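Task card 7
Instruction: Convert sequence to structure tokens.
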Amino acid sequence: MQGKILIVDDCQVNIDILVELLEDDFELETALSGELCLEKMPRFNPDLLLLDIMMPGMNGYETCRQIKESPVGPFTQVIMVSGKASPEERLKGYQVGADDYLVKPFNHDELLAKVKIHMRLQSSMAEIWTANSKIHEFNQELEHIVGERTAEVMATRDIAVFALAKLAESRDPETGEHLERIRNYSRILAEELSRNGPYVSQIDRTFVDSVYRSSPLHDIGKVGIPDAILLKPGRLTVDEFETMKQHTTIGAKALKEVIKQGTCGQFFKMATDIAQYHHECFDGNGYPDGLRGTDIPLSARIVALADVFDALTSPRVYKPAFAPEIARQMIENESGSHFDPIVVEAFLSRIDDFLHICQIEKHRDSEMACAGPCEDARR
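Output:
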């Protein structure tokens, strides 16, 4: 058998004629109405319909339309059979999805030729569908493999980046889990900014992930700062402060060299911006370049606040930890001067998340003196 054909006609004589012509070569089923045709479709699953147009109840046009709109429609060839041969009748048949049109009384050889042509078309469509299904399965498998490999590469990169950042942090043993907190604070701010405010269009999932992964490198340049300055328990002299400020350009220069060595893409570009500009102030009084406002990269503005909050709420060789509530007030007071006001708004919106990560007991001496976040330059 070359395929399955469903013959639909309200006249049994016409059905008998078609059965006699086709039964030697095809598996056949018959229906005396459009309604009965639709009932038999799911069970018989024909490759081809020979569908009479003029039937009582549901005519051939409506039957064809419903078949073509069903899930099996694209895989079922429909030849409409009618005693009417006008262009309008043919066009109406094609409009409801018919694949061909045959006029009664039809030539038997023409009928067989058309049936065989449409059987070949249906077979080709089935092969294409099968091939597409296999391609889809292959693509899914490939995406899974690529996803696993990408995750492995990113995990390896993150480990290397974090280890590199730890190298700088290890010279200051009192910083504890500073890097882990910084990356979590930065991610919280980026996520909040991606939902509300004027920076929504600048922040997508990649931006948030990149801020999270690159923020630990913000102080990588401290590997080039002498211990006598980095670990000094008192206030820095003017010359010492100038040396300390160089950690931004040292870190950025090192990361730019990494970019030159390979296809590091956006990740290390962002890490470079953060390393160089996370001590810039929104009012232009920061360093190393004195950038102002939105000239400071958004990633650096985000990490600047995260870094200051963690520095204020953590003990250092030159100061005890401040209570989180005091740190929050100090940052709010610096909105528009040290910090981008929009980033401060995001910080205040997510303060509970910051406090949860902070996990530090309230400092009892809330009157501890501090000149302000911008002077906490040894971070």
